[in-house]
Amino acid sequence: MKKIIVFFLLLSTPILAQKEVKVNLSNPNSAIYTHLYFLQPNTYQPEKAAQTIYGFEGKEAEEIAIKLKKILDGKGLKVDFSKVPTDKTYSDTTDYKIGHRYVLFPYQMPDIYVERVGGNWYYSSETTSKVNDIYNDIFPWYIQKIKQIIPQFGHHKFFNIEFWKYLGAIILLILSVLIFFIFKKIVYYVLRKIQFWIIHKTNDKINTALKKLTRPIVLLVVIWFIKSFLPSLLLPLDLNTILFLSLNIMVTVFWIYVFLKLVKVIMSIYEEFAESTHNKLDDQLVPILNNFLTGIVIFGGLLKLLTLFGIKPVTVIAGASIGGLAVALASQDTVKNLIGTVMIFLDKPFHIGDWIEAGEVVGTVETVGFRSTTVRAADTSVYQIPNSTLSEMVVNNKGLRSFRRYTTNLGIRYDTPPQLIEAFVTGVRKIVELHPATRDDAFNVEFTGFGDSALLVLLNVYFVELDWNKEQASKHSLHMKILKLAADLGVDFAFPSTTLMIEQFPEKKGFSSNYNIEENRINEIVDNLK
Predict the structure, then answer these.
(1) Would you say 348 and 279 are in contact if contact means Cβ atoms under 8 Å apart?
(2) How much is the pLDDT for 506?
(3) How far is CA 124 from CA 107, 128, 331, in A?
(4) Which residue has the higher pLDDT, 502 or 38?
(5) Are strands 157-158 and 120-123 parallel, antiparallel or unpaired?
(6) What's the CA gap between 216 and 204, in Å, rounded?
(7) Angle between helical axes of 28-37 and 58-74 (0-180°, round to 10)
(8) Which of 145, 179, 447, 463 has a CA positioned 20 to 30 A from the CA of residue 277?
(9) To which H or E segment does residue 411 belong?
């Protein structure tokens, strides 16, 4: 039995020897693997790991290599060798100026990278020159002092983690809670001061939005504090990786929340401003702008979340651009309507509530959306006009008129005496001048011609009220005063009719109205107009 065991041991020795890892600097993958492999507890050979450091030798190179690994471990940065290139002549295609260089963690640690020197790959001279500064930032000097005064009992391990690290984590959590409650009041006070300095006013709605904005900002401060001191605990790499990934996800989510609440605050301020203006189109812009800014914040946040999982944002943006182009080609009408919406809000050819004429559509503008504009006609029917079409149409905006013009002809009977016609015209002029809803400096009341069945008196006035309902009420008031004047003067309004004039007929007389043209009576009626 012993001979068989010895035989298999002798047989496995060359196989194990073949799997022995050697120093290999031929490509980025091998160089980084060499550095990290020879600093693992089971394969600890710092002199071999130091060969990846360019420009240094001996103990100095070993110290730099060890610090580099501690930096990566402390930040929870675990190298995924399946993504590290194995090409000997690898170069970054995103920037031709960089040349033969590979950055391990371009978003977390852009200063740590390997580059090709001669035929081999080493950690760059820029990286090695910054190692000490980066190391001191992550592991401050006082942390080293604290570790030195920890008693021997504190170095005993529980689940492969020393006891002093558990105590350090508890202290870190307690300090984080204290920071949260202290900074909560400070941040809210600062936000209120900034908000009041910008708009010089406040209300309950804005204060509520500021309170909701305060909490995520304070949590971001707390997470920054935790991330600053967490590397000093020197937790295992796998645990550090999970903790930092979780913290980075929380930071991204909180930033999304902060920007969403910031959008709410900005839109609350803008809504307050929009309500103070006469332009109702600003009020319609509030929900559209709110949705647009919210979409940008969410898209940017999702983009950042993807980078945490190793997906390059350039790849996502490129994919989104190609997909967006395909969608745009498939939905050209939607894109045209969106552009039309932008043009409407930029040019502002009308406001919400304006009475417009656009082609065959006549009515009041009710809403302006992303795709179409809603116009309600006088018969309460609703028209949906695509914004691309509306932006290209000739729009007659009657809501922008300074006055509402009203023109009509007053037809009086042909047999009305000239004296009464003159008195009637004078009286109507005075009614227009005294009426509170009409301009007294621009109007026309004239005897303008002879119609088929009436003498025509032109009435051309301008109402100062722009609202349609108020205009109709003003017309009613004006018409009633004119009718009363005509009744007092004895002036009759004509209507289409035929009169047969009989000059001679036994015992029959021609029809003739009895008009009272007494001058004093006429003057008294006109003078008493109010």
Answers:
(1) yes
(2) 56
(3) 18, 6, 50
(4) 38
(5) unpaired
(6) 20
(7) 90
(8) 463
(9) strand 404-412
The answer to whether the beta carbons of residues 39 and 69 sit under 8 Å apart is yes
Helices 237-276 and 163-199 pack at an angle, to 10 degrees, of: 10
**Helices (H), ranges, 38-100:** 46-49, 58-74
Contacts 24+ apart (CB under 8 A), 285-293: 285/345, 288/341, 288/345, 288/368, 288/369, 288/370, 290/263, 290/264, 293/263, 293/266, 293/267
Mean pLDDT of 80-98: 77
Q: Residue 264, SS3?
A: helix
Residue 135, token pair as written in the block: 């190391």
| Sign of the torsion angle spanned by Cα atoms 214, 216, 217, 222 | positive
Contacts of 353 (CB under 8 A, 6+ apart): 280, 364, 365, 399
Which structure tokens are listed for 70? 């501690």
pLDDT tens string 233-268: 777 777 878 888 888 888 888 888 888 888 877 877
Instruction: Give the pLDDT band of residue 328 (cuts 50, 70, 90).
Output: low
Give the whole-angstrom CA distance, residue 144 versus residue 25: 33
Determine how many CB atoms are found less than 10 A away from the CB of residue 4. 8
Which of these, 368, 391, 184, 183, lies nearest to 285 by C-alpha position? Answer: 368
**What does 96-133 look like in DSSP terms, one character per residue?**
TTT-SEEEEETTTEEEEEEEEETTEEEE-HHHHHHHHH
Share of the chain above pLDDT 90, in %: 14
Handedness of CA 93, 95, 99, 103 (dihedral sign): negative
DSSP state of 371: S
